[in-house]
Design brief:
Rossmann fold, 36% helix, signal, binds 2-acetamido-2-deoxy-beta-D-glucopyranose, alpha/beta
């Protein structure tokens, strides 16, 4: 029992140490590549405080505000919200359950989910796969493999459908985006016979006219 605890402790230490400047630069590049107004909300991170501080400072340099609270913000900010979590951290389980329950995987929220250990990926992926990550979800799983992050998009075409994973690109110091096009709806045309269960009500106002072209969604 004691040995297990020590091993677990070393393991956590290790994964914390692995959150280095490279990870922070990746997150920053990812946001910049999106080119959208962004409010970054992080949760379930077991990173050291100074690493989190560094993340906050680095993304603020590109005009991104951060917060650690999942409490709903003003509706007007919804379109800017990008959630960040790290499957290497135990606490990310709670974040994923909370997000599933509160429907935070749906339009208009974006997600960046990090993972570095293949074992954890195997263990945690079912959480996402069973969750409501559907056709309107914009969720990117970024796996650290050596000195690269490999990015995939995940979604299920229907509530009972199997998860579809499509390549999104990689980061090796520069971010290479391999999406065939940026509009989500163009990439998600094949519903594989699943009924469409979502709907978006779009009010034609001056605000939507301003925001919609910036969302790459519709
Ligand atoms: C999904 O599966 C559940 C249980 O198997 C079933 O009750 C439900 O009708 C299915 N929903 C759809 C949309 O196929
Ligand atoms: C990253 O990948 C791109 C595209 O394959 C390549 O052109 C570039 O040289 C790579 N950068 C590094 C630092 O390896
Ligand atoms: C919307 O934009 C139009 C044209 O720019 C302007 O005339 C109108 O007053 C605006 N409406 C509101 C409610 O801001």
């Amino acid at each position: 029992m004691k040995v297990e605890i020590i091993i677990l402790f070393l393991f956590i230490q290790n994964s914390v140490r692995a959150k280095d400047a490279f990870t922070i630069q990746f997150i920053k590049s990812f946001i910049q590549n999106e080119g959208k107004p962004t409010h970054l909300i992080y949760g379930g991170l077991c990173w050291k405080k100074n690493v989190i501080n560094k993340l906050v400072i680095e993304v603020s340099k590109v005009g991104v505000r951060t917060s650690a609270s999942f409490k709903p913000l003003s509706k007007y900010q919804d379109h800017a919200i990008m959630y960040l979590t790290d499957l290497d951290c135990e606490q990310s389980n709670e974040v994923i359950s909370y997000a599933s329950e509160k429907e935070l995987f749906q339009f208009t929220y974006r997600w960046l989910v990090l993972v570095s250990s293949p074992e954890l990926k195997e263990e945690k992926l079912p959480l996402l796969e069973d969750g409501p990550v559907l056709v309107d979800s914009d969720l990117v799983l970024a796996e650290r493999v050596g000195d690269q992050f490999q990015m995939v998009e995940m979604h299920r075409p229907g509530i009972n459908g199997t998860m579809i994973t499509s390549p999104r690109g990689f980061y090796n110091g520069s971010l290479v985006d391999t999406r065939p096009n940026r509009e989500l709806y163009k990439r998600r045309r094949n519903m594989m016979g699943h009924p469409i269960i979502m709907s978006n009500v779009i009010q034609d106002s001056n605000t939507t006219r301003y925001h919609l072209p910036r969302e790459d969604r519709l």
